[in-house]
Structure formats: structure tokens, C-alpha cells
């Protein structure tokens, strides 16, 4: 078989319907748009989501975007530079952070982030640590304790 011999299957290709070309053509006068009305006019029709003047569904829904995964944990974030302001010689626990005003509540999970430097050997207890925070605390001679 040669390239010039290839043809589509019988009935696979169909001529488009030419509307508005006179009554004898089968789709004359109204051209399949019915009688009068907004949808019969040139450029007429309604925008997507229009419900005939009734309050549209999209407008009646609250403006919520995205979603929150079920496994998402909402951590209270504390940077190392803020831990450095606490007095030396005390263990840094969630209760100490709450008393110092660095977090809102000792009951919610806490994550220590690595922005800034920490000096002196400190024991820091929190629910989670960033990699850089863990390295900086241990490099200063401190210890990291993960709270459950």
C-alpha cells in the first residue's frame, strides 16, 4: 500500500452542517436556533455559571481556597536566634518557651528552626527540629530532645 492509497474508513469523515443558507438547505431562516430570545441572537447567550438571575452557586459558597491534609500538623515556629535570648544554664522546654512569650501555648506542637546562632551547651526539647537547627545546637555542645 502506498501513501496516496491511504483513505479514511467509510463514514468516518462527514461534511459539517452549513446553517443559514436558505430554507432549501434544511437549516435556513432560524438556522436551528429556534425563535427569538437571547440564545438566538448573534453573540447572544449567557456566561458560564449563570443561573437565570438566581444567586449563582459559586457566589453562594464561602471563599475557601485549597485544602488542608488530614496529616497536617500546625507547628508553632521558634528560631534559634530567639532561643539565644533566654538565660544560660536552663533547659529549654515547651513550658519555658511559653513562659518567655516565645510561643502561644505549651500544649500545641513546637518546631525549632535554624535561623540565627546559639551559644553555650543547651538542652532543647521540642516536637520537631529542622536539620540546620539540630546541627547548630549539637555543634554548640547542646543536646536535642524530641518530645512526643
Question: What would you note in describing this structure?
Answer:
The radius of gyration is 35 Å and the shape is elongated. It has a domain at 76-146: Ribosomal Protein L15, Chain: K, domain 2. 16% of the residues lie in helices and 12% in strands. The strands form 2 sheets. The chain has a 3-stranded parallel β-sheet with strand order 1-2-4. The chain has 148 residues and is α/β, with parallel strands linked by helices. It has helices at residues 57-60, 80-83, 94-99, 131-139; strands spanning 76-79, 110-113, 123-126, 128-129, 143-146.
List the keywords.
148 residues; alpha/beta; two-stranded parallel sheet; 5 strands; elongated
CATH topology of the domain at 76-146: Ribosomal Protein L15, Chain: K, domain 2
The coarse overall form would be elongated
User: Helical stretch count?
Assistant: 4
Structural class: alpha/beta
Question: Kindly state the mean pLDDT as a whole number?
Answer: 92
With strands numbered from the N-terminus, the spatial order across the biggest sheet is 1-2-4
Largest sheet: 3 strands, parallel
What is the element string, with H for helices and E for strands?
HEHHEEEHE
Q: Give the CATH level 1 class of the domain at 76-146.
A: Alpha Beta
First-last Cα distance:
73 Å
Say how many strands there are: 5
CATH-level-2 architecture of the domain at 76-146: Ribosomal Protein L15, Chain: K, domain 2
Segments where pLDDT lies below 50 for 5+ residues? none
Rg calc: 35 Å
What helical percentage do the residues reach? Answer: 10-25%
The proportion of residues in beta strands is 5-15%
Amino acid at each position: 500500500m502506498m501513501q496516496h492509497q491511504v483513505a479514511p474508513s467509510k463514514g468516518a469523515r462527514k461534511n459539517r452542517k452549513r446553517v443559514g443558507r436558505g430554507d432549501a438547505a434544511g437549516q435556513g431562516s432560524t438556522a436551528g436556533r429556534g425563535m427569538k430570545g437571547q440564545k438566538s441572537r448573534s453573540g447572544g447567550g449567557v456566561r458560564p455559571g449563570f443561573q437565570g438571575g438566581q444567586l449563582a452557586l459559586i457566589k453562594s459558597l464561602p471563599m475557601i481556597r485549597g485544602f488542608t491534609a488530614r496529616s497536617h500538623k500546625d507547628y508553632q515556629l521558634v528560631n534559634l536566634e530567639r532561643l539565644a535570648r533566654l538565660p544560660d544554664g536552663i533547659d529549654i522546654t515547651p513550658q519555658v518557651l511559653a513562659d518567655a512569650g516565645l510561643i502561644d501555648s505549651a500544649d500545641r506542637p513546637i518546631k525549632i528552626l535554624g535561623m540565627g546562632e546559639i551559644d553555650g551547651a543547651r538542652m532543647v526539647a521540642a516536637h520537631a527540629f529542622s536539620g540546620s537547627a539540630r546541627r547548630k545546637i549539637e555543634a554548640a555542645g547542646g543536646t536535642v530532645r524530641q518530645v512526643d
